[in-house]
Amino acid sequence: MLAPLTSQQSDYDGTASRYDQSWIQQLAKSGYGLIQTSAATVEAGGIAFERQLGIHSDKHLPGLTQMATMIREGGGLSAVQLHHAGHRAKPSIGGIPSPASEKTLRGIKAITTEEVERIRESFIAAAKRAQLAGFDGISVHGAFGWILSEFLSPNLNDRKDQYGGSLENRARFTIEVIEGIRKACGPNFQIGWRLSIERYGLRLEELREMTADIFNRELIDYLDLALWDSAQIVREGTFQGKTMLSVFTELPRKGVRLGAAGKIMSAQRAGELLDEGCDFVLIARAGILQRDFPLQVMANPIYDSPQLPVTAEYLRAGGLSERFIDTMRGWQTFVKPGSL
């Protein structure tokens, strides 16, 4: 599966640009089982990145439809990643910070219960829009401190309403989004959930408990476990000494599929993760370096990605747009400093 890669190459209003379409066209021919779009805003005010893809308006439908069509014609499944930045929304580009807690951002009040419910409905409306555009499903972004992840964190959520306090209450926002999408889009529309564990005050034990319940109730079709390193070891707490991945792969998952991302740069590492209990792997940086990573792996069982950093010219020759290359310059050790 291709991980959702925010490339910042859309038009300023969130419309998919010709650069987005070129990127998807390359990926569609590359052998992925499922291709996710970059993080797409479910509300205009939920934006975190300049030139971020949007799915909060019907004006985004033509570009999204073109993307879904190309992926389908290439033989893969498709999903839009649904995103709201929460307290990390960027005011300089029209974002409206929406913290769960009064304490998170100085001078900015926590969003009200009614505003939580409005954003929930925006996720559901965005999913319906993705379905209308012809996508096979969506992925709910619940990672990296964005709004759903933020509500899960006891450090960032000290609310007194039904969305704060106990784990059940802090998980309520995510569960209502997922259940609302299922009701609106039906049983055959795929629902993925991207979950991260590190940082933002998230508690591994709580997230495992929540995931076990979601698996047991089969609320989603797949879990996208976003790890900084797929080989990472738990350093403290109940699961100290185990791999982060094993904490989740050992759970009964019924019909739900589980995959992981995190420094998967070679055919060997991809195979190891399947042996460790993953149903699929998510390719991120390796796919930026080599668009057709899956085809390379199928052709060569010892395939390994080029060593980082690479030159801008290498990325350009591979078909990456100047906008995407500029984004990658902001990633530490990806683009060789000074390369034009």
From TrEMBL:
InterPro entries under this entry?
Answer: Aldolase_TIM, NADH_flavin_oxidoreductase, OxRdtase_FMN_N
User: Quick one: signal sequence residues?
Assistant: none
SUPFAM superfamilies referenced in this protein's UniProt entry, alphabetically? FMN-linked oxidoreductases
NADH:flavin oxidoreductase/NADH oxidase N-terminal domain location is: 3-297
Key words, A-Z: Flavoprotein, Oxidoreductase
Pfam families given in the database record: Oxidored_FMN
PANTHER family documented for this protein: BINDING OXIDOREDUCTASE, PUTATIVE (AFU_ORTHOLOGUE AFUA_2G08260)-RELATED (PTHR43656)
What name does UniProt use for this protein?
NADH:flavin oxidoreductase
Q: Which organism is it from?
A: Chryseobacterium vrystaatense
**Organism taxonomic ancestry:** Bacteria, Pseudomonadati, Bacteroidota, Flavobacteriia, Flavobacteriales
